[in-house]
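Encode chain A's predicted structure.
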Amino acid sequence: MANALMNGASFTFLLCASAMVSAELRYSIPEETDLGTLVGNIAEDLRLNVWELSVRKVNLVSDEMNQYLQVNADNGDLFVSERIDREHLCRQSLACSLSCQIVLYDPEEMHSVTVEILDINDNSPFFQKDEFSLQISELSTPGARFPLKSARDPDVGTNAVNTYEISPNEHFGIKVQSRRGGSKTAELQLEKPLDREQQATFQLTLTAHDGGAPCRSGTARIIIAVVDANDNAPVFDRESYTVTLAENVPKGTLVTTINAKDLDEGSNAELTYTFTDHVPQLIRELFRLDSQTGQIRVEGTLNFEKSSYYELDAQALDNGSPALTAHTKVIITLSDVNDNAPVIHLISSSSTVQENAQPGTMVATIRITDLDSGENSTIHCQIPKELPFTLQKSSRNDYRLVTHEGLDRETTAKYNISILAWDNGSPPLSTQRTILILVSDINDNAPQFTQSSYYAYVTENNTPGSSIFSVSALDLDIDKNGEVIYTVLDSIRDQRSVSRVVTINAKNGNIYALISFDYENLKHFQLNVQAQDSGSPPMSSIATVNIIILDQNDNIPKIVSPLILNDSTSVEIVPQSLYPGYLVTKISATVADSGQNARLSYQLLELTDPSLFTVGVLSGEIRATRSLRDQELITSRIVVCVKDNGQPSLSSTAIIFFSILPNSTVPPYESSIELREWNINLYLIIVLGSTSFLFLATIIFLVMLKCKQDRNIDEVYRSRFCCSDPRNLDNAFTASSNVTEDPRYVRSGHSEGYRYPVCLSPESSKSDFLFLKPCHSTLPLNELSILQNSTRS
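Encoded structure for chain A:
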């Protein structure tokens, strides 16, 4: 039988034009069809090539909990995948169908598929009880009717209960009534008057037949008892009662009041109202009939979407013996109210979208349904206007969520898109659903350093391998696109590679020294650091790091005049020349450090005669404090200490022997090595002193000229820094031949010098010598920047 119905299956193809290509396919199949049974070929019906189904990722979307149908992507066949029981799926509804959507992508198409489920006669009629009784008064007249228990059949249409018949007898016949909706009821009709004395009981067989092919049937036994008494049955004032209710009426609302009258008197006229057996238990839970007053009230919650029409069979029974009854119908029609908010279904969705997605890129497909009817089911939908997304309507209740402007992950990494849907009811009902869309990153941002250039100050004699500075770059991208790698761009300066001097941690930007710096050989240098991300293609930026070496007190002062041999020297003195303040000799020393570390002071540690000599703390001049007296010692020994102003202070000492010569024009030469070399030392001192004097005069002239040019500099910085300019720092590896040094600090053993910014020391006004010191060694970076800006202006 199923095959026969299958051969009669048909389909309808409707093509609709809309914003998104769509079509509607209709098929029909009988219930209980075997699994794998072909319903139809969607590729053929949609006029598509079979290969498009797999390439475009055909997908079957259904609102049903069970997936009754499936599509074969290889050949386009739509086939049955689960057992279909029409009675379970649609119960007693005449129309029964399965609805689903066929979705194709790239380009997107959505087609509606409706499969009508045809009923087959797979259920027999049955009665709730195999036997039931009737009491009929012998006074009943021919033509009187008595309702019988109705048979049930889960099938519908012609397969449902079609007719009733009763076993042959001479007193009773059967009368079949058709109800609204196509159901059948049976009434026992008296055809011949009864005589209880002749026959008190009847046993009849009631048979219910359906209209299927082949026909199915069910039976029940009727036991009729003929009684004598009450001969007036109740009569209702109406054959039927019609009522219209709103579906949202509260419990206890009065629906209507049924009313019947009995012409008998006494107990035979006392009536009891009840629902007949035709009223299902489900309806009894919704409506309650007061047995005494006949009032019908709402007992449960009504729902127009479940059922909009109810037909209640009521009866009035008197208290006679046997009881007589009257029957009536109460027809209740529900009117729809807007009590269902729209429901938002997410058919398909992309959880992420690239930030460079073009406007019009589809993000999600949305369907909105409303169980109400009429204007209450008309739906409107929107999302916030400030979002870079928009909704496009593709069919009556289907929408596409697409981008309408560019995205930027660095500005907004995710969007919580609130979809608001509301109906046309009064008042309107609405619902809201939020979709989370993540914006995936692309490499569109280069790493950016916190500064374009940095200044790092490193004290000389640092430990090789120690960190001297750190740079940092921020990349707004994430993951690999935001992973920053630091490198030092190698360069050659003064025949030396930067990569051999410093290195950098590629992950955190820490810069490490590979060598120990010596301020006396290298005062500053410059390197370029590159920050590059790991994106494809990679992006990078460069920052300049200026490494400035700070001096450390690591050089011991050296006495250069008078000439020291084996830590001692000799000086000859003519006795008559000694007088208080007489310059006996001058100690000149130099040191390789600078600044305070190069500021020297002199003191006498030991003296043969403490009252004879004194030394200038800053000048190093040894002068006589008194004249020689007769019988004085002919020799005198002093120990001179020269120390710098560093922390901690470093010093050197020398022993000077003073020989008191006899009063003569030409001093005799001593036989010692010191006396033989005295003339040579004297000449060297004279030459060195002359040269130093000329050089010092030149420096003083240049300093005064420079100070005159910088009078426009702010008084605060001019008083503190005099004529220095940090911009005069040389390149990290460039040495200059223009030496600017204190004539007292001659560098012995060095043939090359360096250019260094200097200024007048406050101590210059306290001595005969001009002291020079580096202006930047203790200058903070912020004051250095202020000075640079002032000098430029």
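The first strand starts at residue 11 and ends at 16.
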